[in-house]
Input
Amino acid sequence: MHAARLTSPRLVRTLAALRGAEGEISTWELGRAARVCAVNSVVAELRAHGFEIRCRQEVQGGQRRFYYTLLKESGADGG
Output
């Protein structure tokens, strides 16, 4: 996978939403807050830059829901 630079507006918005959540944020909430569609792909790009992001799944009303939590910041320089 080729991850975008950390200066990418898409990654910047997603990271800001994860930081602002101060805990778990659902896929739907994260997508809306960061204005991204493929939340899991953007999270994978952030992980490639060294961010530690947990994904938790639960079933509610027969539907799977996913929740993301920023656990550790990256030491990356934005490159």
About this structure: The domain at 9-72 is CATH 1.10.10.10 (Arc Repressor Mutant, subunit A).
